[in-house]
Amino acid sequence: MFPSLSFSFGSETVFMKRTNWFDRQFPRIHDNGLMPGLIERLEGTPARLLNKLKIAPESASRLGSNHAWSLKKEVGHLLDLEPLWYIRLNEIKRGEKELLAADLTNRKTFETAHDESSFEKLVHDFSIERFKLVSLFRGLTDAEMENISVHPRLKTNMRAVDMAWFVAEHDDHHLAQIQLLMEEAGLI
Known about the structure:
By secondary structure, the protein is mainly alpha-helical. It has six helices and four strands. The two termini are 23 Å apart. The mean pLDDT is 88.
């Protein structure tokens, strides 16, 4: 079971259950016309991270004692996956049959010393990598947008628009986790 998020509305507190990432389903998107909005969402993730983290002092970086990752590990995880997204989008672009499998243990995130970096550096590095991914999405031709590759874990067909949605949803999943960690620490 994944932790739930709480939201206060006046005197009432509402709890929302969060679905575990690996339990998520990703139905195909049939409208390539959604790509511009998805690109905007992907491009906006670094700014959304900065906005969330602006109230978190560096001393709060290790928030998450009840969770697998600290605040900085959550941000570092987003950075760690950018190369995978870039490789997968290029695979779709080339029309390869199956996409590169992810390391489902997230070994890189566990082993990288993200907690030793500042929030500013983590988000800066993520911004640079995300710019590369967004540029690749923006440069797709109509023909490349029609290419299909199989996602290795989900065993579903993905086009570039499906992948953009998948990555945007992954971003939001971790932004919600950052929100939870900050709420639990009383920062928000």
